[in-house]
Amino acid sequence: MQRRRIQSLISFLITAAVVVSCIRDEAPEGAELAVGDSLPDFSVTMSDGSSFSTSDLEGKVSLIMFFHTGCPDCKAELPVVQSIYEKYGQEIGICCISREEGAAEIEEYWQSAGLTLPWSAQEDRSIYSLFATYGVPRIYISDRNLTIYSVYDDDPLATRSQLAADIEACLAE
Question: What's the structural domain count of the chain?
Answer without folding.
Answer: 1
